[in-house]
TrEMBL record:
Lineage: Bacteria, Bacillati, Bacillota, Bacilli, Lactobacillales
Protein name in UniProt: MFS transporter, UMF1 family
Subcellular location: Cell membrane
Annotated GO MF terms: transmembrane transporter activity
Alphabetical list of InterPro entries matching this protein: Atg22-like, ATG22/LtaA_families, MFS_dom, MFS_trans_sf
Gene3D superfamilies xrefs: MFS general substrate transporter like domains
Presence of keyword Ribonucleoprotein: no
A Pfam family assignment: ATG22
Length: 425
């Protein structure tokens, strides 16, 4: 009887888990304010005022995003390997976070005629954001136990969606109401300050409470030893067959997930949806993703994280099939809501499943590879959409073509042994 009562106890997060989750709340504001919505529009307005053509500004935007992705992808394995040594992860996390926060804050003080400086700062902020996430993701193994990882990781993504929308909604409120007697440009600069402060303030609990518990003792020559360890991991990759199979599957299906999200506004524009309506729909996606991300974590406890990732993949297969007939705002909203039901869940459970199957003392190194596969996965999907759309003349056909990424990713995932590595010892 006591055992039954014990099982019915509500899930309670520890102080450590709450601090870890709050970091997702903190840095997700950067994703929507800087990467997705506000900064790209601000950059276009600045370049236009400086006589830069739309084509040129778009090209430059593509260049800096490619550059920041390349920098992080090249450095990720080395940064991860360094962070596995005792006492290294937290300082590296702080360095990367402060790089992102300070660069974001400085956006507000760049003169309107210095668009090149704006791009340099954006590159630094993007590198800081991505690098800090390598250490943050890897610290999941120290923030909770293996059996609670799915729930905690999912909650991080869920609360991250809510955290990201609050600064954005504040910005939209002041922009639409015009309560403040200032220009849109100045309001946008205040939004950058708000984003930097939001990121910094809500990271404080993480700095205070999340400590490095799993580590490798520091050798005499840290950098040289890091390269040696990295080479040994690559050399003996067959020993990590299960991890490699997961990363291959992740490479394909996360590419589909990312492509559908990043190109959603383009798809909506193609069927005649206005910019204001698209912003509202994107907010709806964020709010739908919040409860469903947490729900995925709850269900993973009963059905397993691997099965729930498959549910997410099947949902995206359905989205690709539904996209063929997408020709109205109502259908676009339905598609967007479907994305919201699966987007956070598939990402959060992928993170926790990966954390469970890798050697915990080398979690930072392996999350460096996780980051690489996630970054380079952002290339193939948009390429497929571009080619198919060019051939057929319909962007909906391009979305449908993404179905192959989810099928291939699901096939690789099928062969992954999801048993936590702790239980194999």
């Amino acid at each position: 009887m006591d055992e039954i009562k014990e099982k019915k106890k509500p899930f309670k997060y520890t102080k450590l888990e709450k601090s870890w989750i709050l970091q997702d709340w903190a840095n997700s504001a950067y994703s929507i304010m800087i990467t997705t919505a506000v900064f790209p529009l601000f950059f276009k307005a600045i370049t236009e005022s400086n006589g830069i053509s739309d084509a040129s500004s778009t090209a430059w935007w593509g260049y800096v995003n490619a550059l920041s992705t390349l920098i992080v992808s090249v450095l990720a394995p080395l940064l991860g390997t360094l962070a596995d040594y005792k006492g290294y992860r937290n300082p590296l996390f702080t360095l990367a976070t402060m790089l992102g926060v300070i660069a974001t804050l400085l956006f507000a003080f760049v003169p309107d005629d210095s668009w090149q400086l704006l791009l340099i700062l954006y590159t630094l902020s993007s590198v800081g954001f991505a690098a800090s996430n390598i250490f943050y993701d890897a610290s999941l193994v120290d923030a909770t136990t293996s059996e609670r990882m799915d729930r905690v990781s999912s909650s991080g993504f869920g609360w991250g969606y809510i955290g990201s929308t609050i600064p954005f909604m504040i910005f939209i409120f002041f922009q639409l109401t015009g309560i403040l007697p200032i220009s849109t440009g100045l309001l946008t600069k205040y939004a950058f300050i708000l984003t930097a402060l939001w990121w910094f303030i809500f990271t404080i609990p993480y700095w205070k409470n999340v400590k490095q518990k799993t580590y490798i003792e520091k050798p005499p020559h840290v950098v040289a030893h890091s390269f040696k360890r990295l080479w040994q991991t690559l050399k003996h990759i067959r020993q990590y067959r299960n991890v490699f199979l997961f990363l291959l599957g992740y490479f394909f299906y996360i590419d589909g997930v990312g492509t559908i999200f990043t190109m959603a506004t383009t798809f909506g524009t193609d069927i005649g949806i206005s910019a204001n309506n698209l912003i509202v729909i994107m907010l709806i996606v964020q709010f739908v993703a919040f409860p469903f991300s947490i729900l995925y974590g709850v269900l993973a406890k009963h059905f397993g994280n691997k099965r729930m990732i498959f549910i997410g993949i099947l949902t995206y297969v359905g989205i690709c099939l539904f996209a063929i007939q997408m020709d109205s705002m109502l259908k676009f909203i339905i598609l967007a809501v479907l994305v919201g039901t699966a987007q956070g869940g598939i990402q959060s459970l992928s993170r926790s499943l990966f954390a469970q199957i890798i050697p915990q003392e080398s979690s930072n190194e392996f999350f460096g590879f996780y980051n690489i596969f996630g970054k380079f996965a952002a290339v193939m999907g948009p390429l497929i959409v571009g080619i198919i759309t060019s051939v057929t003349g319909h962007s909906t056909d391009g979305v449908f073509a993404l179905i192959i990424l989810f099928i291939v990713g699901g096939i690789f995932l099928h062969f992954v042994d999801s048993t936590p590595i702790e239980q194999k010892k």
